Amino acid sequence: MSVIENFEVSPLLQKSNFVRPFRITFQKNGVNRYWDGVKSHDGVSILIFNKDRRSFVFVKQFRPVVYYTCLRKLEGEDATSVSAEPHTPIGADGKPISLPSSAGETLELCAGIVDKAGVSLEEIAADEVFEECGYRVEPSRLTKITSMASSVGLSGTSGTLFYVEVTDSDLVPSAGGGNEEEGESIEVVYWPIERSSELLSMTETKIPVSAQLLLGVLWFQQNVKNL
């Protein structure tokens, strides 16, 4: 478990490398409208299945915005409201609220943003499989499941979901865990396929599970046979 300290929240005033807010104005059926959005990167996600272990290979990591939402709820703020200025949640004692880092941990597919020019989505996905989970796979081994519109009300970005089968022989010793230079600290989680149905209710009971993970597992149940 990570140790989270000095967690502070403030409005975004400096230029970000990952998001850029904007406003769209337009007319719809003769009525003036506007829409606020955030420009961000497209992404790739990879459902990894280890045939030797008969297990999915997921990642668990600390997500600051998930953690922040938990703190907002403890402070008493309506977490569905965006009218309040972003700030560090404060408790009744006048001190910043703190929780164990597990409050911000999520179970996800191996994934990454599309931020490299002239590189195929398969190549980006293969790089993420190695960087996060430690498996060396050629891009040609990945099967594209689908591309989907993600965050349709906020960014309108596209997410592409891949599937790849691996064995323990593909695993590189000491590899995986994320990019240390980017501050990533990723735990690799092996999830037996016999327990896949448990994932459908995990967010309600134990740990938040990403939508891409659920889609990938449902696809697997429908399309991957004779294991």
From TrEMBL:
It is found in: Cytoplasm. Gene3D superfamilies: Nucleoside Triphosphate Pyrophosphohydrolase. One of its GO terms (biological process) is ribose phosphate metabolic process. InterPro entries: NDP_pyrophosphatase (IPR004385), NUDIX_hydrolase-like_dom_sf (IPR015797), NUDIX_hydrolase_dom (IPR000086). One of its GO terms (molecular function) is metal ion binding. Its EC number is 3.6.1.45. Its cofactor is Mg(2+). One of its GO terms (cellular component) is cytoplasm. SUPFAM superfamilies: Nudix. Its main location: cytoplasm. Keywords: Cytoplasm, Hydrolase, Magnesium. Homodimer. Hydrolyzes UDP-glucose to glucose 1-phosphate and UMP and ADP-ribose to ribose 5-phosphate and AMP. The physiological substrate is probably UDP-glucose. Poor activity on other substrates such as ADP-glucose, CDP-glucose, GDP-glucose and GDP-mannose. This is Uridine diphosphate glucose pyrophosphatase NUDT14. It comes from Mesocestoides corti (Flatworm).
